Amino acid sequence: MDEKLSLAEISENLRLIEQTEARILAEKILSGEPGLVAVTGQFGSGKTTTTLMIAHQVWRQGFPVTLLTQDRNFLNYLHLSLPQDWEIQYVDSSEQAWLEAIEVVTTDSSRAIAIDQLTYDNRKAILKAMQTGHWVFAPIDTPFVGIDVLSHLKVWQYSSEEILANVSGIVSQMLLPKLCENCAQLRPASLEETRLIYPDSYEIKELWYEQGCPVCENRVGGEYRYGRCASYEVLQIDAETKPLLSDYLEHNSLRALSVHKHFTMQQSSRGLVKKGQVGIQTYRNEVLQNPLFRIQHLWEQEQLRASRIQQMFGRFVTQHLAEELMSHQGFERIIEGEKRDVTCFFCDIRGFTTWSEQTAPTDIFTTLNQYFREMIDIVFQYEGTIDKFIGDSVMVIFGAPVEQIDHHLKAVNCAITIQKKVIEMNRLSENEPIKIGIGINSGEVVAGCLGSDRRMDYTILGDVVNTAARLESKAQPNQILLGETTYDAVKSEVSCRSMGNLNLKGKAKAAAVFEVIYSLTEED
Ligand SMILES: [Zn+2]
Question: Is residue 314 predicted with pLDDT exceeding 70?
């Protein structure tokens, strides 16, 4: 008896659900609606102890606990002592015996019920216990974690409705070998490796590696010289997550759950790598290559892609474009940069400096905001991407990040629509009329993301961009100037006139320039 440890001590020794995020989520489950809290994990990962630990938390909230077990040696091999007022009952391993035992226990509505294992024999009894609104804690012998445990519960012939109505949470654990103290080394990782641990990073970071030594080699035989540490997965099932999980169970459709509802094994394991408790190789071999986490991994990639898109393009592309980008197979190419054929378009207010000097600042902002709002609407209408605002000048891209076959024509039509809109706005406004000049040029650029972890922007680089900017600076009020490549692509559909060859700043050779002819009235 002296050798036995109390649950509190066990908790201390195991540092149960040590990672803050997982613990907070586990506590949140216990503060919610009663139901089944299922604990899963590999053989020998200590899920029975974890189950009792979690039951212990509810006991501390004032629920007496009854422990039902069909194993007479149950307490012996646990090597722990339970609180005095926990009631332990042995139940024969038959369906009838379990149903009778549950019938008795559930008459006390304030009791929590801990079960040594969910099995085929007691599945009906456990469902009954859940349906009477009791807390039920049970380990399940399955290697599955998180949402996959829910599918696995169907093995016990629980329906999706029964599962979602009666399960409050899933806690899963996995033990990972601790980083070898003999040969651990912190060194710069590749970008690919950095992203395994810091998925949204664009910069390489230092990570912990095991360099390989006799101790590490021993691990092949299953010896963990420096012990193991637990990685957790916690899923909360509540009003918010139920509809999403129901979609998953019924239609196999996966939608993202927030980290406040679903803390994954990957996130948890990454935390261990960041803290230097687990090596990057271990993460790669045991977590990333674990087939059970593959769906999660894909899901996470999807979420990550969505948040990157949001971060980089959210403000400046249409919803339609954002969605197309999210499904874009080559998203990584965008991040890393690629050659693209695009049309680039600069638009700027003529005489802005003079105008702004003579106008009250609030009027300037009101006028400019109205102008930009209209302009952005038109750009989106033509599926252009606003690359950047530089003072009163705007850079727009057509043909990237999403390919457009007719990007030349879209850009030119967009420019004409903007010019007409501005003229119309001037007619309706009492303010000083705004006049804009537009320069358009097409050709091959390098498109991709530039910046750092702090801020990342999608942009295009190349001579095409510089020339478009030069053309814009040459454009008179209300004028649209085209470079030769754009002109060649649109000349059969847009009337233009040649301006001859103009010397553009920074260009050795004079460039052929064309002006778009359009009517200054809205009507056509
Ligand atoms: Zn080692």
Answer: no
Confidence of residue 462 (pLDDT cuts 50, 70, 90): confident
- CA of residue 292 to ligand 1 center, whole Å: 27
Tokens of 166: 């009666």
List, for residues 117-175, the tens digit of each pLDDT value: 898 889 999 999 999 989 999 999 887 888 888 888 887 788 889 999 999 999 888 88
| 175 CA distance to ligand 1 middle (Å) | 18
* Between 292 and 467, the higher pLDDT residue: 467
Distance in Å, CA 217 to ligand 1 centroid: 7
Instruction: Write out the DSSP string of 403-448.
Output: --TTHHHHHHHHHHHHHHHHHHHHHH-SSPPP-EEEEEEEEEEEEE
Q: Which residues have a Cβ under 8 Å from the Cβ of 181 and sit 6 or more positions away?
A: 226
Task: State the distance from the centre of ligand 1 to the C-alpha of 191, rounded, in angstroms.
Answer: 24
Q: Which two tokens stand for residue 363?
A: 């009027």
Q: Are 342 and 398 in contact (CB under 8 A)?
A: yes
The Cα–Cα gap between 58 and 81 comes to 17
Ligand 1 centroid to Cα of residue 233, in Å, is: 27
487 sits in which H/E element? helix 484-490
Distance 282 CA to ligand 1 centre (A): 12
Helix (H), strand (E), coil (C) string for 86-112: CEEEECCCCHHHHHHHHHHHCCCCCCE
Kindly list the structural domains of the chain, giving each domain's residue range(s) and its CATH number in brackets, ordered by start: 5-182+209-305 (3.40.50.300), 315-516 (3.30.70.1230)
Helix or strand (DSSP H, E) at 174:
strand 167-177
- Above pLDDT 90, what percent of the chain? 25
pLDDT at 524 > cutoff 50: no
